[in-house]
């Protein structure tokens, strides 16, 4: 919610200053902030929905709503960068550049950088605490906004010394940054929607399974992620002489061990007798 309120303030502030100064760099940042506001609102809604428990229709929960919102966010970013690139190239070719640099031009960009630093730190902390990919995506998004605002600030400095094309060039820089962000967010969202196993998760689980001396062998390890939740299924082999109660206890220990390294995970351990003969 604090991120949404910050986005509303920055969007209005940038649009007003951008229209008064005719700075494409600031206007592109204003449009970027408008999408930030929409993205933050989508994240707020998606996190609220994804946190609902599993039901009869959604037996694996609602976690993938987060990943779907991240994918939609990446599409919005691509559209934004396309408009900025078109407008910047048009200004560079036509030489129709009239920018009024004022103290407010610098104030709005510096204010944006300070607010983005604050909310990206807040979101990173919340994402780590809640194991939320949607909040993490927003945190990464706003941390890169700091870089794009820095590019616009540099363009304003050059424009202040008479090199007005620097503003359009800075806008192109912002657009390229946005394209890179959208690619990273979109790829990560699609990977989860297609049930691709996140990097490093398989190794973590296998190391835990190998360290358990009661396990003779394991196979058919399957891992999928939905929002903040991870679902793990594995077949393990135990000594055939173990009784049911002991086997059940070991399975509980396996689930507990894996839960210590992967928060919010649901584990199914299928026990099988190991016949060495």
Number of helical segments with 4 or more residues: 8
Q: Going by CATH, what is the homologous superfamily of the largest domain?
A: Cation efflux protein transmembrane domain
Structural class: mainly alpha
CATH architecture of the largest domain: Up-down Bundle
Whole-Å distance between the termini?
62 Å
Percentage of β-strand residues: 5-15%
Instruction: Tell me about the largest β-sheet.
Output: 3 strands, mixed
Which segments are poorly predicted (pLDDT under 50) over 5 or more consecutive residues?
none
Query: What would the average pLDDT be, to the nearest integer?
Result: 81
| Total discrete domains | 2
SSE ordering? HHHHHHHEEHE
Shape: elongated
* Computed CA radius of gyration, to the nearest angstrom: 25 Å
Strand order of the largest sheet: 1-2-3
CATH class wording of the largest domain: Mainly Alpha
Number of strands: 3
Give a quick precis of the structure.
The chain folds into two domains: 2-193, Up-down Bundle (Alpha-lytic protease prodomain-like), CATH 1.20.1510.10; 201-274, 2-Layer Sandwich (Alpha-Beta Plaits), CATH 3.30.70.
Description:
With 277 residues, the protein is mainly alpha-helical. The chain has 2 domains: 192 residues, Cation efflux protein transmembrane domain (Alpha-lytic protease prodomain-like), CATH 1.20.1510; 74 residues, Alpha-Beta Plaits (2-Layer Sandwich), CATH 3.30.70. Helices cover 69% and strands 11% of the residues. The protein contains 8 helices and 3 strands. The chain has a 3-stranded mixed β-sheet. Strand 2, helix 8 and strand 3 form a beta-alpha-beta unit. The longest helix has 31 residues. It starts with a helix and ends with a strand. The mean pLDDT is 81.
């Amino acid at each position: 919610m604090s991120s949404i309120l910050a986005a509303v303030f920055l969007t209005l502030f940038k649009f007003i200053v951008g229209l008064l100064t005719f700075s494409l760099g600031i206007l592109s940042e204003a449009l970027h902030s408008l999408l930030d506001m929409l993205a933050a609102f989508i994240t707020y809604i998606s996190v609220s929905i994804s946190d609902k428990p599993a039901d009869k229709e959604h037996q694996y929960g609602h976690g993938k709503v987060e990943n779907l919102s991240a994918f939609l966010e990446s599409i919005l970013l691509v559209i934004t960068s396309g408009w900025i690139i078109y407008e910047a190239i048009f200004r560079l070719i036509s030489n129709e550049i009239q920018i009024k640099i004022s103290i407010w031009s610098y104030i709005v960009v510096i204010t944006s950088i300070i607010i983005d630093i604050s909310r990206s730190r807040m979101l990173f902390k919340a994402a780590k605490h809640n194991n939320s990919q949607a909040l993490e995506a927003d945190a990464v998004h706003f941390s890169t906004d700091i870089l794009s605002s820095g590019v616009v600030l540099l363009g304003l400095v050059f424009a202040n010394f008479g090199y007005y094309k620097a503003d359009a060039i800075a806008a192109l820089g912002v657009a390229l940054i946005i394209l890179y962000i959208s690619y990273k967010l979109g790829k990560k969202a699609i990977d989860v929607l297609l049930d691709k196993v996140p990097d490093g998760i398989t190794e973590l689980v296998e190391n835990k399974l190998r360290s358990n001396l009661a396990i003779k062998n394991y196979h058919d390890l399957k891992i999928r992620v939905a929002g903040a939740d991870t679902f793990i299924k594995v077949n393990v082999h135990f000594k055939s002489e173990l009784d049911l109660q002991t086997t059940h206890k070991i399975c509980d220990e396996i689930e507990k061990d894996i839960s210590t390294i992967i928060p919010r995970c649901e584990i199914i351990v299928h026990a099988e007798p190991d016949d060495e003969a």
